[in-house]
Design brief:
Layout (H helix, E strand, L loop, with lengths): L1 H6 L7 H13 L2 H33 L6 H24 L6 H18 L5 H25 L5 H11 L14 H12 L4 H34 L3
Helix pairs in contact: 2-3, 3-4, 3-5, 3-6, 3-7, 6-9, 7-8, 8-9
């Protein structure tokens, strides 16, 4: 129920805000709820970012001239550099006193526990991995429906670029912003703008409109959490 509601455009503050409220209601600990939510966000990108990085490197090495280099290089350089900086900050611990840094590092702490206890927590990794695979697959299906033929690397790069902010973290499931970003990202990997927009419209019917139907059915169950302070 919570997962379905979090993916639908019913949460003004975004799915993560709803997750935090739900966990707070269950555990009665606001700090723990916030840390778990940050850990969920870290887990999302721990799987997606390396995949997009590999796609960018493959396209750079392969000399694909359809894709803008201004899209490839930020991913190729930014992912390893960002990971190195995050690890350095986490190890030093000097910035943990800064509130927002401390919260972000708490998410990395949760991710670290999931990695160390992967045999017990494999469900989290598998579930998140399946989510990314299936959602990227939905985008691929929409592209084929419109008649576009993207390589796997182009598809992953376009998806990752268009979801620099995910619909789970954005208000109203990313309505509006996602359509714009994903359309441009498909264009940046070499597809015509009109066709790219058509792909996004088809894709969003299945990953935005369809989840809204069961969410509306389940709304009475989650309304107390939505209205909680």
């Amino acid at each position: 129920t919570l997962v379905v509601a979090g993916f639908a455009p019913l949460i003004p503050g975004g799915g993560f805000a709803f997750d935090r409220r739900a966990l707070h209601a269950v555990h009665k600990d606001e700090r723990e709820a916030a840390e778990r939510v940050m850990g969920l966000g870290a887990l999302e990108w721990a799987l997606l970012a390396p995949g997009v990085w590999i796609a960018a490197v493959v396209l750079l090495v392969g000399g694909d001239h359809r894709v803008l280099r201004s899209v490839l290089w930020p991913w190729a350089i930014g992912v390893p550099a960002g990971a190195a900086i995050a690890v350095a900050i986490a190890v030093s611990g000097r910035l943990r006193s800064v509130r927002w840094v401390g919260r972000a590092l708490a998410g990395f702490d949760v991710l670290g526990l999931l990695a160390v206890k992967v045999r017990k927590q494999w469900g989290a990794w598998l579930g998140m991995g399946l989510y990314w695979v299936l959602d990227i697959g939905a985008l691929y299906g929409a592209a084929r429906f419109i008649g576009l033929r993207l390589t796997v690397a182009e598809l992953i790069l376009a998806y990752g670029t268009g979801y620099a902010l995910t619909r789970r973290s954005m208000p109203l499931a990313g309505a509006g912003a996602t359509e714009v970003l994903l359309t441009f990202s498909l264009h940046w990997v070499g597809e015509p703008m009109t066709a790219a927009l058509a792909v996004v419209v088809v894709y969003r019917v299945f990953n935005f409109v369809v989840p809204t139907v069961p969410a509306l059915v389940l709304l009475p169950r989650v309304r107390p959490l939505l209205e909680a302070p």
